[in-house]
Amino acid sequence: MNNSLLVELVCSRCQRKFDPHLVHTVCKSCGGTLFSTYDLERAKSDGVRALLRNRTPNMWRYRELLPVYNDTNIVTLGEGYTPILPLRHLTSVFKAKSIVLKDDGLIPTGTFKARGQSVAISKAKELGIERVVLASAGNAAGAMAAYCARGGVEAHVFLPKDAPEITKKECLSMNAHLKLVDGLIDDAGAIVTALAARNGWFNMSTLKEPYRVEGKKTMGYEIAEQSEWKLPDVIIYPTGGGTGLIGMWKAFKEMEEMTWISGKKPRMVSVQSRGCAPVVRAFQQGRESTEKFEGAATIAAGLRVPAPYASEQILRVIRESRGTAVAVSDESILVSMTRLGREGVFACPEGAATVAALDELFANRWIDKDENVLLYNTGTGLKYPELIQVPEIEVLKNEIISNTAQ
Ligand SMILES: *Cc1c(COP(=O)(O)O)cnc(C)c1O
Ligand SMILES: [Zn+2]
Predict the structure, then answer these.
(1) Which-ligand-closest: CA of 384?
(2) Which of ligand 1's atoms lies nearest the C-alpha of 349?
(3) Is the dihedral of CA 381, 384, 387, 390 positive or negative?
(4) Of 18, 24, 265, 319, whose CB count within 10 A is highest?
(5) Whose CA is nearest to atom 10 of ligand 1?
């Protein structure tokens, strides 16, 4: 079945067009990121929005607007359509109108990286790619390993040597070939670039491959559909490589063009850790792209991206949406994990960073009391077992147990 309305790929810098039936990385002329364009007129006239009602609750419900032509190529673990939860406690603490959390802690592989990899590996299969490689801070590698295993594609992953242990184990359990690098994600990236060509591996690294961002785009579609096509005033998103932010914004523009939504689009807030805040710094300095953030260090592994490849796009989205960028401390991230814990959500530190940003945004009235705010939790706290520090906990002695039981 041919459901996708994908038309072509267009370079974000020089607008050169590319045939989506061929394998591509970045623009051959200028190195810009390639973005998928769809026949949105057709999606509108075919009434795709109304068709959604009868579809299964996962992200492939938007398949006309995803790049896989043949359904048999879809590699899925049932990802997407995660809940949007009202945060009653935080809403009352900030005396806000409404603060909700879109919770991707409930997705296969435990982080929203599954969305990007489901689409990217599906499209790789469709294009006949058999071996892929990725440099990652951890979670993207785990997700790629899972979808490669599912789809029968050979996976090679390169992680910083101090990437979370759990993501290393995740990759190995899913039979990926894992190598550790003495450095950060951009050092791993440099090695991958060199090895990919030599070994005939396709490079899946962030925004050097056109389709992961299409998977991330579904976050935007889901937010709209789950909110009865009325978007929140503000979306707060933890930013590393930036595909999430760029993807959601692309979704909003597509939906606007199809008249699925109307009115003001959300102001997009990018949150980073003070230990690695290239986007926040560039935003505050009025720059159009980031400069490498030296000595990057943060407990939020997914935010440890000192030089995001698509920084121009990230900054453009923040400015175009009249959003902002906020840096928060690792200490406030840890405290925020327990604040979300009060709502029954065990979030990853990246997701908790969005809560940490609320203090500043409400204090300086960047967010008004009558605005609807959506926080994006990008993954589950269960993927960060080493992060939670607990005091020594008393172990009850056997006598006490038998005495009590009598
Ligand atoms: C990768 C990652 C991020 C950053 O996402 P981008 O869309 O690349 O900016 C945030 N949170 C988690 C848990 C991640 O794994
Ligand atoms: Zn170009």
Answers:
(1) 1
(2) 13
(3) positive
(4) 265
(5) 302
Q: How many CB atoms lie within 10 A of CB 257?
A: 14
Protein residue whose Cα sits closest to atom 3 of ligand 1: 302
Residue among 185, 204, 236, 239 to mutate when testing ligand 1 (max atoms within 8 A of CB): 239
* pLDDT digit string, tens, across residues 88-133: 999 999 999 999 999 999 999 999 999 999 999 999 999 999 999 9
What would the pLDDT profile of 179-223 be if each residue is shown by its tens digit? 999 988 888 999 999 999 899 999 998 778 999 999 999 999 999
Ligand 1 atom 2, closest CA: 302
Neighbours of 215 (CB within 10 A): 30
Query: Structural domains in the chain?
Result: 78-406 (3.40.50.1100)
Cβ < 6 A, ligand 1 pocket: 111, 113, 139, 238-244, 302, 348, 350, 378-379
